[in-house]
Amino acid sequence: MTRARVVIAGLGDTGLLTARHLSRHVDVVGISTKPALVSGQELGMRLARPDDWAREYLVGFDRYRKLDGVRTVHGTLTELSLADRVVGVRLADGSTRAEPYDVLVIATGVTNGFWRRPDLQSDKEVDAALRAAHDQLAAAESINVIGGGAAAVSAAANLALRWPRTRVALYYPGERALPQHHGRVWATVSGILVERGVSLHPGHRAVVPPGFDLDRITSDPVAFSTGQPRAAADATLWTIGRVRPNTDWLPDALLDEHGFVRVSPDLTVTGAPGAFAIGDVAATDPLRGSARNRADRLLASNIRRQLAGRALRDYRAHRRRWGSVLGFQPDGLRVFTPSGWSFRFPAWSIQTVLQPWIVRRGIYGGVRRHR
Ligand SMILES: Cc1cc2nc3c(=O)[nH]c(=O)nc-3n(C[C@H](O)[C@H](O)[C@H](O)COP(=O)(O)OP(=O)(O)OC[C@H]3O[C@@H](n4cnc5c(N)ncnc54)[C@H](O)[C@@H]3O)c2cc1C
Using a 6 Å cutoff on CB, does residue 72 contact ligand 1? Predict the structure, then answer.
């Protein structure tokens, strides 16, 4: 009997995890513009300590044991034909290829700032971009961080920790940052920011310069529509959460008014038989939290259920954001629950228990040491 063919569009955080659950049961083809997992997680650590970040979050596909047998295609998805159940891919040499599927998983994520872009990149280009952002911030004596979400807060905290003599200022529009987290999270995190010398500027809504795509760190003074004087700094990081779904390769009929993929609670794509969506691209709930809430297991199980003609299960979203905000810190990893309380993996446990056993073995099913 021939095995079903599952094409995973986008091998980022959620596409890769979905592939890992399916690889023993069906034929899996993973398509990605990146040559490796280039995770969307932990921006602060990525900017402040790129080598530490890369060790955990930039991982060659060939290092994942559960991806053995998965065929990866390094290219850009350009089209989807629903009638023929086939996607079109443009490869690095400019040639195109058609990849037919029985089941399609749409996991192409979002574009966010300069650190999450959908462009085709080689290993060298990924490394160079990582290094360039770090070097620019390392050379700055003052840094403005614009935005109040987890990426902004994590960047400010990690940059201030890494370069204590650099003046780091955080500008956000509300009374508090982290508005999508429980209030207790900001109470804890703002204390850490102040301790590290970050100056906090609530009620500042920055004006995005016209035509600026947030695709780089800028050096011009920042203006505010809320009336405060301009703020100058050697480097300004725009982490304002203005994400754009990577869906220009999909038919409009599959998208909501903001360009995200319409899904039913069971993660099937409305109007596209055989297609599912997951992660930041999927309009599951107002926070689009399926990546954060490990919906990959449910999705893989639903795909197997659908192939076997069984009933599918529904994804249940959290109403508040949760998880780590600052990433690994000298005292360990603090994880916030949806109700704002936190627990901490102590520093000694990160490389002895958390990463090797819970993350690499438990979540990813085994990761080889070297590429
Ligand atoms: C285990 C885990 C823990 C997490 N913990 C936290 C946490 O504590 N706090 C928190 O805030 N968030 C957390 N997150 C969530 C995370 O920050 C993001 O939500 C996640 O990175 C989104 O994953 P994604 O697969 O949707 O997108 P991405 O990881 O961005 O993957 C999309 C991929 O598709 C590729 N792509 C895009 N367009 C195309 C195209 N046309 N053709 C081919 N490829 C394309 C992109 O290059 C990229 O590789 C966690 C996620 C996971 C999996």
Answer: no
